[in-house]
Please model this.
Amino acid sequence: MQTQIRRNNTYSMLLLVLFPCILLGMIWLFLALVFYFLGGTYNEYGEAVYTLDVGLVNAYFLQSLPWVVGGVAIWFCIAYFANVSIVKASVGARSLERRENPRVYNIVENLCMTCGMDMPKIDIVDDDQLNAFASGINKSSYTVTVTTGLLRLLDDDELAGVIGHELTHIRNKDTRLLITSIIFVGIISTIMSLVVRTLYYTFLFGGTRRSSSNDKKNGGAAVIVVLLIGIVCCIIAYIFTLITRFAISRKREFMADAGGAELCGNPLALASALRKISGNPGLDNVRREDVAQLFIMRPNEMSSGIMGFMNSLFSTHPDPKERIRILEQF
Model:
């Protein structure tokens, strides 16, 4: 467990260091591609000649640098400290009071006393599907969330295994790593979307105002070029999301299963719970793959279609059958 904690802390620091470098590199590349393809000229033979003015690219890059760094820093701070409410809103969770369900509180308290950790907050999602997850970055924000369907279908031993699994994620600092990656991926996706959209409307409405049909043709070509460049940068952003998923090894789920089995003292109960959850994992109202990384099991609705197939290839969740098989060998 200590090895897993050190590994997750190392990955978190790498994300903190590499993310600004990757983001700034993407912005420089975006500017370079725009100036390269839109700054072409024609020689005496009528052939297009493209050159890259590195000095011009660097000048615009340096002008944008303070705004990008400042904006990302502010965004990261807000998201980092507001991660609880963001995740809570994305899944439709609410706080669970002790008087509403003392059974859950008793199970969580007993498991926390067993492993000597502070008790996290408990949230619930009113949904008949089965799922659970842990979130948070520190003691004041650590939260275990369960669905109403999970509470109805699982017995006490099975529920203890699931909650033990989520508590192990907290103890291993898995949640801190996942929340950090979710914030970074969200920043990259939004920034690139805004840049592409802004440049698109700039060329669309600013570059086609002249009455000359030739000018309009050039303006339309410019829009196409900018969109193609945007697609390239979006592909780079997607590759970054895959890298973060590789950094978040699937071993963390096996480690959490082992920790949950140890805490509840009944590996077969956790295996039984995973088998039940695999029959109806959710949640239907959650469409964000980054948030779904937190769940104990990948929702079925995220496994359909081409994107679902691609996401499954790089999923941070191992095959449920394999997890169950390992638990039953304890």
Summary: The two ends are 17 Å apart (CA to CA). The beta strands are 41-42, 48-49, 93-95, 121-125, 132-135, 143-147.
